[in-house]
């Protein structure tokens, strides 16, 4: 039996994107059904200033349309089918607005909003509106590979929870903290980059460690043993089975 102080959060990466079309309400709903306690999603701003949930800057890969989100209107984006490319069963699934996710996901679920687009005054303004309207200051964590985006968000609203994303060079989080003076909530390293020392160091500095994207049970067990605070996966059901088996 494994004794742990704290079970890591099950974070559905783009929802349950191994089994449903990524970054759709269907994918988020499935992740929650499967036991996810957190959801990771990616955002872009439309031409008319609404925040859409989509990984890529274009709609080409995950819808039946083409074009840059930044050049398209809400009306154009909402007409697209974001489900059929994955499976005909999901035909008619739309690209969600961030607002629709905030409105439909239970308040206790942590939402990790990964900012993929540049931080413009409009994006900043709309994010803060939505956080206030849906009372999500405490249950949203903003992450980005572009750490300046996070710095900009924090400067506007110091209460925001921000997390640094890393595909490499994980340990330099202390440099970022020291250079910017930014109060960092979490670190989001790629799972192959971390070892027990890194995780212990981060946790001892009061940081959560939310690693991504772990789909292989052997690797799930490895990062669990390292003591991470959350595990992002495309297969939340699999992660739940694995965690339950370790803790039973
Ligand atoms: O937030 C973790 C992960 O989503 C970062 O990479 O490309 O899947 O958005 P990507
Ligand atoms: Mg992402």
From TrEMBL:
It holds the Pfam family GDPD. Coiled coil: none annotated. One of its GO terms (molecular function) is phosphoric diester hydrolase activity. Residues 8-243 form the GP-PDE domain. InterPro entries: GP_PDE_dom (IPR030395), PLC-like_Pdiesterase_TIM-brl (IPR017946). PROSITE patterns: GP_PDE. GO terms for biological process: lipid metabolic process. This is Glycerophosphodiester phosphodiesterase. It comes from Paenibacillus foliorum.
């Amino acid at each position: 039996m494994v004794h742990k102080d704290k079970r890591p959060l099950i974070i559905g990466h783009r929802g349950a994107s191994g089994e449903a079309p990524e970054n759709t309400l269907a994918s988020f709903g499935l992740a929650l059904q499967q036991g996810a306690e957190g959801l990771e999603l990616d955002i872009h701003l439309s031409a008319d200033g609404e925040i859409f949930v989509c990984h890529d800057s274009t709609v080409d890969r995950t819808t039946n349309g083409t074009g840059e989100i930044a050049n398209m209107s809400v009306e154009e984006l909402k007409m697209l089918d974001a489900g059929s490319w994955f499976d005909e069963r999901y035909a008619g699934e739309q690209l969600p607005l961030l607002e629709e996710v905030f409105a439909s996901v239970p308040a206790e679920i942590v939402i990790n909003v990964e900012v993929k687009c540049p931080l413009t005054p409009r994006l900043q303004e709309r994010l803060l509106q939505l956080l206030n309207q849906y009372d999500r200051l405490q249950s949203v964590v903003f992450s980005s590979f572009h750490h300046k985006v996070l710095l900009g968000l924090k400067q506007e609203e110091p209460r925001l929870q921000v997390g640094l994303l890393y595909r490499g060079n994980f340990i330099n989080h202390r440099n970022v903290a020291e250079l910017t003076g930014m109060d960092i909530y979490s670190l989001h390293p790629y799972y192959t980059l971390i070892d027990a020392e890194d995780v212990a160091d981060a946790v001892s500095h009061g940081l959560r460690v939310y690693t991504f994207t772990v789909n292989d049970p052997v690797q799930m067990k490895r990062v669990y043993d390292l003591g991470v605070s959350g595990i992002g996966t495309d297969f939340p059901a699999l992660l739940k089975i694995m965690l339950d088996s370790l803790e039973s």
